[in-house]
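User: Some background: our group keeps a shared notebook of sequences we're curious about, and every so often someone picks one and asks for a predicted structure to add to the entry. Today it's my turn. The entry only has the sequence so far, pasted here. Could you supply the structure so I can complete it?
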Amino acid sequence: MTEYTTVSIPKDLADRVDDTIEGTSFSSTSDLVRFLLRSIVIQHQREGELTEAEFEDIAAQLADLGYLDR
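Assistant: Of course. Here's the predicted structure to add to the notebook entry:
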């Protein structure tokens, strides 16, 4: 059985995510967050430790998609 934990994000961000995922295969904010985190972790495991530049690139991509405020 998979155990879960809670991650808190600001309500306004959760509302924006809800609007963004409407009409997609993501059924909830949690689904999207799991997908994004899993993608980052997989990339990290494939490439080894992320450099600061790689992390900043990922953060910039997420900001461009509206998931992070910069």
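Suggested note for the entry: Helices lie at 11-21, 29-47, 52-64. The radius of gyration is 13 Å.
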